[in-house]
Amino acid sequence: MSSKYIVRQPIKDKDSHIVGYEIQYHGENHAFSSGPNQQQTTDFAAADTIYNFLTLNTDKLLRGALHFMTFTTTLLMKKTPRLFDKDELVIQIDDSVIIHPLAMHMIRQYTKEGYKIAVNEFQFAPRYLAMLDSIDYIKLNFQNTQELTLKNIIEIAHSMNKQCIAVGIDRDELYQRALKLKVDAMEGPFVAEKLTQKTHSSGYLQSNFFRLMVAVMQDEPDVEEIERIISVDATLTYGLLKIANSRYFSLRSRVTSVRQAIMTVGLNELKQWVYLLSASNAENPMDEGAEEFLRLSFMRANFCSSLMNYAKDVPISKPEAYLMGMFSTLNYLIDAPLDEILAQIPVCEEVKDALLHHAGRCGMLYDLALCYERADWAQIDRLADELGIPTNLLTSLYFSCMEEVNRIWNELTQQAPGLAPEDQPAPEENPS
Q1: What are the residue boundaries of the structural domains of the chain, listed by start?
Q2: Minimal CA–CA distance to 372: which of 303, 295, 324?
């Protein structure tokens, strides 16, 4: 059975602000991986994958962001980019398109229609230089291109008001080189996990926090709504579990879920905690980079939980898999090593070993989620096979989770009804 995967990878500027996302797709067919029919097979795989992508409620997934997607010559000639909103799509092309006799005509036509154009692995060659006027983004592979060549291309590009994106950034060495050469944006595993600075330990998604304040102040608070609000925020979840397992409550057993924590703490104490957070962090809003990590933790939590529906012999529950994904970014959100953070909350040993050492079958599940983010096709196949997860389900699971995360995130990041930031209650008021 062939594997078809679609991954959305962030493209960030030097300050870790999201510039856009690259849609990477993989439609492997071992029977036609090479030979005279390779181009035809590539076109088929690309078309098939794009079709599958479009059927995954793409309008909900792509809304409000710039997405880079590579198109073959055949797909360009078939007007496939017109299936996407020109304000949310960047048409990527590579050498297989540029060498085509009609390349110049096609690119100019799409440019005239308002589409942005990006070129993968730009070269100092006449066919590339002839297209510069119609190109908006130049993508440079930092893993296999000499630094002097990169420097010259970037200088020429900037002199013509083109933006340069460094790709393949998988370690700090390449990241620092990209910064030195003054690229406009970067992409790769290291970039996806890079924060320019760590946030304060009490940082949280502010707009979500306002919703929590509204929820706990109701005459008859809805516990399920409170649980839902806290469960999408890694720092709120961590803080609540830490409090619920403190000596203050003299517990006989550990509290390991948000619902248990709410019941243990009680609504009055929960109100006190919310007011305390309000006072301690009122003037310390979370920066954009940290917010992206908070969103990533929510996505990982949902993806790991969904994978548990199919994974074989993984010795944790779905809620524990959810917490594994949720807590995977805590060391970026809290200024402390992950092992120290996890030591303060009751996470099972299997989850700790997975997060800290990538050990056991829990570690394999966690690695599968990470490899999918990174578009590591070979590892995706290997890990899914070892876990007994059908590879043909991964893309639909991933995008179903993304759709749900986007829906909930958009809902929670809107201003809470009836409570503006300046209207939040003063900490000294009686919360009970």
Answers
A1: 4-192, 196-432
A2: 303
Helices (H), 202-358: 206-216, 223-231, 234-244, 258-265, 267-281, 288-307, 318-326, 330-333, 338-342, 349-357
* Cβ–Cβ under 8 Å, residues 349 and 324: no
148 — alpha (psi -120 to 50), left (phi > 0) or beta? alpha
CATH code of the region 196-432: 1.10.3210
Which residues have C-beta within 8 Å of that of residue 347, sequence separation ≥ 6? 256, 320, 323, 324, 327, 355
66-102 pLDDT, tens digit per residue, is: 889 888 888 888 888 887 888 889 999 888 888 888 8
Find out if CATH 3.40.50.620 is the number for domain 4-192: no
351-396 pLDDT tens trace: 999 999 999 999 999 999 999 988 888 899 999 999 999 998 998 8
Distance CA 106, CA 97 (A): 10
d(CA 405, CA 399): 9
pLDDT of amino acid 113: 93
Contact (CB, 8 A) for 425 and 276? no
| 24-48: pLDDT as tens digits | 877 643 322 333 344 555 565 556 5
